[in-house]
Amino acid sequence: MTVVIEARGLRKEFTVRVKAGRLRREKRVVAAVAGVDLRVERGEMLGYIGPNGAGKSTTLKMLTGILTPSAGEARVCGLVPVPQRTRLARRIGVVFGQRSQLWWDLPLRDSFDLLRHIYRVPAADHAARLRRCRGLLDLDEFMDTPVRQLSLGQRMRGELTAALLHGPEVLFLDEPTIGLDVVSKQAVRSFLSDLGAGGDVTLVLTTHDLADIERLCRRLVVIDHGRVVHDGSIEALHARYGSRRRVVADLDEPVAAPPEGAVVEADGRRLVFTVDGPAAPVIARLAALPALRDLTIEEPDIEEVVTRLYLSQGAP
Ligand SMILES: Nc1ncnc2c1ncn2[C@@H]1O[C@H](COP(=O)(O)OP(=O)(O)OP(=O)(O)O)[C@@H](O)[C@H]1O
């Protein structure tokens, strides 16, 4: 497997002025990223999450060559991000949800054309990638609209396209679905899912919308106070906090002797089981109950488990 992103002891400190007494302010050094180790292989779809101020954007800025690390080292596509920033720019795509890489007064089509010249993309490759994005992201309706007149959802689709036209190996996405309505969110997620399924592009995604992560990322890196506090699958996070699937049976009438292991709710009309492994044996037992009206399987809630992780970290 090829490692496309590697960071060791990555650290970024900022000097900030803080209040010290009624009138005095003093300088203090804060570590926004406090020693992050990360290895990402080609084709991975990595969710990089954490509470507000955890250091996600700062990490991404160091990996994309926008910020110089205070300590540690990073390589992306074999390049050191800041000194080799220009070469790196040809190999990566970046979407910062809050900022635009498009020309505000130009129609989307012209922005795409300018990017082709800037990145010196062969015309045929550019046309093929644009065709794919136009199809998957439904761009045709607003290709001739100036960027400033686009809705947020339309602009985000344009941003994604702009980030991909030069055929990057790694795509960094900082909150790509922020502020989008459910339909646009689905369009962006399904586009990214298609992109990731190809296995050629590596995705690093930061978001506060955990549905993005559930839909797209098998691996989750959680940072808090600038440090990695979880690196593994979503399932591993559930296992760490003991969250389990629930099988819920709604009954027409209470049963005299509830099956073993059931928690009885709703005046005896609801039976709830938590299951560790396959749910089939529990479902089979419930299916035999004559009073069974409905059966639901509830997956462990990612919001809940991530909240527990954030809360467990406390103050630095
Ligand atoms: N240029 C800067 N100068 C001083 N402090 C900064 C600067 N940029 C970021 N910070 C601080 O570094 C910490 C991490 O910020 P960062 O933007 O990386 O967090 P984040 O995880 O992306 O947060 P959010 O989810 O709110 O976007 C915060 O405490 C922030 O105030």
TrEMBL record:
<dbReference type="InterPro" id="IPR027417">
    <property type="entry name" value="P-loop_NTPase"/>
</dbReference>
<feature type="domain" description="ABC transporter">
    <location>
        <begin position="18"/>
        <end position="250"/>
    </location>
</feature>
<dbReference type="GO" id="GO:0005524">
    <property type="term" value="F:ATP binding"/>
</dbReference>
<keyword id="KW-0067">ATP-binding</keyword>
<keyword id="KW-0547">Nucleotide-binding</keyword>
<keyword id="KW-0046">Antibiotic resistance</keyword>
<dbReference type="GO" id="GO:0016887">
    <property type="term" value="F:ATP hydrolysis activity"/>
</dbReference>
<dbReference type="GO" id="GO:0005886">
    <property type="term" value="C:plasma membrane"/>
</dbReference>
<dbReference type="Pfam" id="PF00005">
    <property type="entry name" value="ABC_tran"/>
</dbReference>
<dbReference type="InterPro" id="IPR050763">
    <property type="entry name" value="ABC_transporter_ATP-binding"/>
</dbReference>
<protein>
    <submittedName>
        <fullName>ABC transporter ATP-binding protein</fullName>
    </submittedName>
</protein>
<dbReference type="GO" id="GO:0046677">
    <property type="term" value="P:response to antibiotic"/>
</dbReference>
<dbReference type="InterPro" id="IPR003439">
    <property type="entry name" value="ABC_transporter-like_ATP-bd"/>
</dbReference>
<dbReference type="InterPro" id="IPR003593">
    <property type="entry name" value="AAA+_ATPase"/>
</dbReference>
<keyword id="KW-0813">Transport</keyword>
